[in-house]
Design a protein that fits this description.
Largest sheet: 8 strands, mixed
Number of helices: 18
Shape: rod-shaped
Order of helices and strands: HHHHHHHHHHHEHHEEHEEHEHHEEH
Mean pLDDT: 80
Low-confidence stretches: 503-508
């Protein structure tokens, strides 16, 4: 008993009571409306003589109405039971079965309603035929037309009210579009039944008058025709409103989702609750977003390996082997005593310290509009001016070198830094199946040689006079020229320069 009470309590907190009340209320109103129409608006002698006590018609009507409500609710509950159980314990049920059942619920609900109506139509037609075949025919046609209208309205209501459950069932996977009628078919059927059927009823009134079903003049049909016209307006409006909402609502949701994507919300998804073309569109949007997110993820990973600028250039234009002449500034940084450090520490400690070291290097280089071209063990090569052109590349590289001395001061690892500028060949080097973007030229070699000397120089940062002359005046004031030396592998003298002390630079 407690289990049953808990189940009922849970059920009342869901959308199913509203669903049941809406579907039941619509059909009850339809049944009462057609009974009142036949009883008071049709000018037939048999109808005027008809009373609720005649042949137990009233008792039969009450009994069947009660049975129809009870049986309809029981059948609906039995039909929906797998869905209810799935909502309580999703992991205990086959998701494919649930998805198929949820998408078919509007059609199945409509089938239950039609079956209840048809049984009632058969009973009341049989009872009426014992009085008059004409009365039986009129009642049969009137109630059958009402059944069509109620069936369409029931489907439209059920399709809209089952959306929250459908969205939950289709959250991870979308089934094919054959589980619900196509949109075009729905719209045609809605207009035909909700507006066309009442208009057909008006036509049949005058046909029946011409066939002698009614005893009065055609003018006596005006009240019935007027009521059917009003019914056509009401049912047509209600049916059209439901159809419009069923189409427009998901379109608005898609529009809102697109606007969120434009604002940068990359994880945007829409609920899938339709088994027609609308559901295909919703699923297509979600699939597109998953593809965009995957592409962005690959792009981010690609950018982390080769640099964001190189990745962007590669995506915008087809990479080809070869290079172009570019004037750039190169910063080379190499860790001092890395071999000794590796001997005294575990591999994990070495990797962790190197990562902290290079995290600072990458941040400072990027802040100064440079790119990390490559990591070479415990060394890194940064380029300023390629692949994206950079005005005053030498100044940016020199500023980055100075900032690195301050940022790396508190780390256990220390490094020598060399900066050089000049013309290089920048492009893709390698084979057709495997290549990388890099720079080759004298400036790269000079930066590497300056780095070796910088390790034994106070401040551990060096550049040459040519690079310093290429920088702006503000940056030049923060460096001091030194002696000239012959760099390894070169046959001419190179004048060195290093940063002045920060206090002296600030005074200047």
């Amino acid at each position: 008993m407690k289990r049953l009470w808990r189940g009922l309590t849970w059920l009342m907190r869901t959308s199913w009571p509203l669903y049941a009340a809406s579907v039941l209320g619509t059909n009850v109103v339809g049944a009462i409306a057609i009974m009142l129409f036949v009883r008071y608006l049709l000018p037939m002698r048999e109808v005027e003589e008809l009373s609720l006590d005649h042949m137990g018609l009233g008792l039969i009507g009450v009994i069947y109405f009660a049975l129809a409500v009870v049986i309809g609710l029981i059948v609906t509950l039995l039909l929906f039971r797998p869905v209810l159980e799935w909502q309580l314990s999703p992991d205990d049920h086959d998701p494919n079965m649930v998805r198929n059942l949820v998408l078919r619920l509007p059609v199945l609900q409509t089938g239950i309603v039609v079956a209840v109506w048809l049984v009632g139509i058969a009973i009341i037609t049989f009872v009426a035929s014992r009085l008059s075949w004409q009365l039986a025919l009129v009642i049969f046609v009137a109630t059958l037309l009402t059944c069509f209208v109620m069936a369409v309205l029931t489907y439209l209501q059920a399709e809209r009210l089952v959306r929250p459950v459908a969205a939950e069932a289709l959250a991870r996977r979308f089934e094919d579009s054959t589980l619900e009628p196509p949109i075009k078919q729905r719209l045609y059927m809605t207009w035909l039944v909700t507006s066309g059927v009442p208009l057909l009823g008006i036509l049949l009134l005058f046909v029946a008058q011409a066939r002698g079903f009614f005893t009065h003049t055609p003018g006596e049909l005006i009240p019935a025709a007027l009521v059917l016209t009003i019914a056509a307006l009401i049912t047509g409006f209600v049916g059209t409103a439901f159809s419009v909402m069923n189409v427009v609502d998901p379109i608005k949701e898609l529009q809102d989702a697109i606007n969120r994507v434009r604002r940068g919300e990359r994880n945007t998804q829409v609920d899938i609750y339709d088994g027609s073309e609308i559901g295909v569109l919703q699923a297509g949007f979600n699939e597109m977003m998953r593809g965009l997110n995957e592409r962005q993820r690959v792009r981010d990973i690609f950018g982390r390996y080769v640099g964001a600028e190189v990745a962007q250039k590669a995506l915008e234009e087809k990479p080809e082997l070869g290079g172009e002449d570019r004037r750039v500034a190169v910063l080379f940084i190499d860790v001092i005593g890395s071999t000794t450090f590796a001997v005294d520490h575990t591999p994990e400690e070495v990797v962790a310290e190197l990562n902290r070291f290079f995290e600072i290097v990458v941040e400072v280089v990027h802040e100064n509009k440079g790119i990390i071209n490559k990591f070479q063990g415990d060394a890194a090569l940064a380029v300023f001016g390629a692949p994206v052109s950079l005005h005053d590349a030498a100044s940016h590289a020199l500023q980055a070198a100075r900032e690195l001395t301050d940022e790396l001061a508190g780390l256990e690892l220390q490094a020598g830094i060399g900066v050089a500028s000049g013309h290089v060949v920048a492009g893709h080097i390698g084979g057709s199946d495997r290549f990388e973007y890099t720079v080759i030229g004298d400036a790269v070699n000079a930066a590497a040689r300056l780095t070796e000397l910088a390790k034994d120089t106070p401040g551990k940062v060096l550049t040459n006079a040519a690079t310093l002359r290429a920088a702006n005046e503000v940056e030049q004031q923060r460096w001091t020229l030194m002696k000239s030396v012959e760099l390894r592998g070169r046959n001419k003298m190179t004048q060195l320069a290093r940063p002045v002390r920060s206090t002296l630079a600030d005074r200047s």
